[in-house]
Design a protein that fits this description.
The protein has twelve helices and 14 strands. The chain is an alpha+beta fold.
Length: 396
């Protein structure tokens, strides 16, 4: 028995029943526009009447219409691109099983399925699926929405909230306990002075964390730099060094600026100073006393590279791919002891990306680390005027 032609009204009725899944207003607007067009007969080449193919084409989801024999009557380009349909066959066994259940009892069903990843390095693709009957002659409509990116973003959001909550809980809890201790020691001026100092330390740590969160949120928002301009690299380096001198002096660490002079990049000076300050702070925090940190700039074709090298403890190779993640710490105990927020390198990475550049790291345990910030040169070509070189003893 030949398959019964699917009525457009039946398709619309099925879509209405699945409205919680389909973007209803978008679909209905597209359907109205299609209805307002002059009626011209469409060739029937797949068992579907005129109009049905046009309705399926405007759906934002992967759409597949099956006949009573599970043959594909119509599939959207997205369904084929995701590998859900090949030829006249629906390739996902879970979808076929759902379609048969829907055909048997007429109940709309929804589920979540995973298929093999369609991109290099992607293990799987996740879909939210709804299947509904079309009329009373066995046709079934399958809609599948790619949820992979949404699930990834949701996982990142959950991790971020959990990490922020944990990081905020430590200084807030410490402040609460210290306040109670100060209250109990009101008659002991020396104890009050000592605990008040600890409270100032925890308050400063909390302030740094909030400031870093605000900076990271601003950069990650994807907004363009408000007023990009030419930024002298020399001034940026010296400003970043000035902001780090106090911490460096406390450990008798010498901050040395070197490399080519007169280089300029295109961007936001305050953001670039923040990125370099974080790199220098990081180098100082993980370097032993009486050593040096070298900050150098050099032209690199159409870019400028600013490197920060230290003589510190180095980073294990296994951790180097993760050090730019938010709140990731190679040594959590040491990081908290130095007052780090775990956001510094994440900020550096996002500042680099916002400027169309990148950041890289070279490190060897026991031999120190070098972080290199690569930024587009102002004018498209990095030309030093004049150039100097880093003293060999400074680079050691």
């Amino acid at each position: 028995m030949p398959p019964r032609l699917l009525n457009v009204n039946e398709l619309l009725a099925s879509l209405a029943a699945m409205g919680g899944f389909v973007l209803g207003s978008f679909v209905m607007l597209a359907i109205r526009r299609q209805a307002d067009k002059p009626r011209t007969p469409e060739p029937v080449d797949d068992g579907l009447p005129p109009g049905v193919a046009s309705v399926l084409a405007v759906l934002p989801s992967s759409a597949v219409v099956l006949d009573r024999e599970d043959r594909v009557l119509r599939a959207s380009s997205a369904a084929r691109a995701f590998g859900l349909v090949r030829g006249e066959s629906l390739m996902a066994a879970e979808l076929l099983a759902l379609a048969r259940k829907v055909r048997r009892d007429g109940e709309i069903r929804e589920s979540e399925i995973e298929t093999a990843g369609r991109k290099f390095g992607q293990e799987s693709t996740s879909f939210a699926v709804r299947v509904a009957p079309l009329g009373s002659h066995g046709q079934v409509l399958v809609l599948a929405e790619d949820q992979t990116e949404r699930q990834r973003v949701e996982a990142v959001r959950r991790d971020f909230v959990a990490n922020v909550s944990h990081e905020l809980k430590t200084p807030v809890g410490a402040l609460s306990l210290l306040a109670e201790t100060v209250q109990d020691a009101a008659d002991d001026p020396e104890a009050v002075k000592r605990f008040a100092g600890r409270m100032q330390h925890e308050a400063a740590r909390l302030t740094y964390l909030v400031q870093d969160l605000i900076t990271l949120s601003r950069i990650q928002g994807g907004e363009p730099i408000p007023a990009p301009a030419q930024v002298p690299v020399d001034e940026t380096v010296h400003e970043a060094i000035d902001r780090c001198n106090t911490k460096a002096s406390a450990k008798d660490i010498t901050l040395v600026a070197g490399g080519a002079e007169g280089l300029k990049v295109w961007g936001d000076e305050e953001l670039l100073v923040t990125a370099l300050r974080n790199l220098i702070d990081n180098a100082v925090a993980y370097s032993p006393e009486h050593t040096r940190v070298v900050i150098s700039a050099r032209p690199a074709g159409n870019a400028v590279e600013v490197s920060v090298s230290d003589q510190g403890i180095g980073i294990p190779e296994s951790a180097q791919e993760r050090i730019f993640e938010r709140f990731f710490r190679v040594d959590a105990a040491r990081s908290r002891a130095t007052g780090g927020t775990g956001l510094g390198l994440a900020i550096v990475k996002h500042v680099a990306v916002a400027h169309g550049g990148e950041v890289a790291v070279w490190s060897k345990e026991g031999s120190g680390s070098t972080f290199t910030l690569r930024l587009p040169a102002f004018g498209g070509q990095a030309v030093p005027v004049p150039s100097t070189t880093i003293p060999q003893e400074a680079a050691k």
